[in-house]
Description:
- By secondary structure, the protein is an alpha/beta fold.
- The chain has helices at residues 17-31, 69-80, 97-104, 135-144, 147-153, 158-171, 177-196, and strands spanning 3-6, 46-50, 84-88, 107-109, 113-117, 120-125, 201-204, 210-217, 220-227, 235-240, 243-248.
Amino acid sequence: MKTVFIADAHLKGVQDGGCRKLLDFFDQLRDGIGTDGRAGGKPAGQLVIAGDFFDFWFERNEIIYPGFRPVVERLALLNSSGIGVNICEGNHDFFLAKYFSRRLGIAVYPEWMEFELDGRRILVSHGDSVDRANRSYLALRRFLRSAFVFNMQRLLPLAFLWRIARFSSEMSKGMSRGAQDRLVEVMHRFALGKFAEGYDAVILGHCHKPVLRQESRGSRQKTFATLGDWIAHDSYLLYNDGRFTLNRFLPRG
Length: 253
């Protein structure tokens, strides 16, 4: 099955340049996309989003942030047209299942997604919990995903939550190049451990740096990938005809 993996679009709304690129990208998934990043070949069979697709997520009674509606509707269209959409939650977008799974029938994974491709065991996650040495972050992560926080945010007006989230989004800064490089190596060590457990591919987001490393272990090829982002790289990982390739999306023109 032709499978596409993306992460870290950090969408802020319909005016976001990343949103327009992704709408074009999703159209190409339906029409067919090749290993060169351009249109061509058969349509994708599966799309896996490895977290932080949205820069924030708050919904109430199926009311979502208006700026996200076009891309959410396109994801629903892909899923209903036979391209299975799967979402791993990130550190910016969680509590997704209530809307995406129950309303749209899109599979949501709070942490790890495990599945097989042509007999290969694949492990996918956003990856923000991989660095076990960062205990302060892991404690904050547990708190933000707790039932207490979920119930508290349900008491606040949606417009207020969206306003605060947009402000926080504008104030936040991305990881430095050095932090990205360090995190890639932490993730690679994690992947090596998972290879020893029998996984054939470990695919992660979060670090915003596109990396693809492959090695042979006995008769099996092992694949480690970090997916980059849709801010600086417009990157995606493609599995097709038994091969993984890391590509940059090139809009039609």
